[in-house]
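Morning!

This is the sequence you dropped in the shared folder:
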Amino acid sequence: MQFENLAADLQKWLKTSIEQGHGRDALVQSMRTAGYQRNFARDAVEAALAKFAPAGAAGGAPQDEPAALDTTTILAQSPNAIETSDRKVDILFALNAPRIVLFGGLLSDDECDELIALSRRKLTRSSVVNAETGTYDVHPDRTSSGTHFERGENELVRRIENRIAELVSCPVERGEPIQILHYRPGAEYKPHFDFFDPSYPGNEKVLAMGGQRVATLVMYLNDVIAGGSTVFPEIGLDVLPRKGNAVYFAYTTEDGQLDRRTLHGGSPVAEGEKWIATKWLRQRDYGGPGG
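The structure's back. Tokens below.
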């Protein structure tokens, strides 16, 4: 890989970080946290170190981590399909601002069916985080039923969690438990944000469990006859539910602020039913319920 072929912003970040004394491992980890694939991150760092690192200094690093990379760069330089250790996943579209990526075939049909079968018998009315109190409450804006699988709960969950970690380069430990949601005809989830507004007192509790949420992955477990799209009203985008596909979106702007363009919701199911599996990703290792 030639350093000069990297995006200008990435070149600048790598050069600055190396000049500040950050080492190979810290740089690679920061790029992976920002969403770059493992091999790309390693090759980019090696190219930058070869160009800028003083002799013998490439492995050292100060105590502080490098400045965070912008999460809007996630997957920006990836190929059109990504080979994880157990499955090839296509990239069907990618939007840069906000960063939204539609993955094709993230889950197999059998995996979708098994997640639904394991979830049917333990569904309860879905809840939301109360921003004032930090409790999980039933709310009229969310009319689905749902359940969750604790991290690593069974072989199926472990396999999917590992695949997601490889796909978006975010460690399994930073993921919240997989949430399963079931929508009957007429059920919906009105537009909302997945990040926690730090100005609300109740969010202190959930932020203490692993920091801010940084991204969401919504996996579609069945084909919906009509309705049930994931809608982003601020940007006029509707993602139609297709079995095995998944939509990923990150929450920060280019200057690191929470991106209110990621307002999103689940449109009402007009006909049939809708099943989804949702994975929320945190800044740090998640230590809350089910983690």
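Headline: The first strand starts at residue 81 and ends at 83.

More detail when I'm at my desk.
O.
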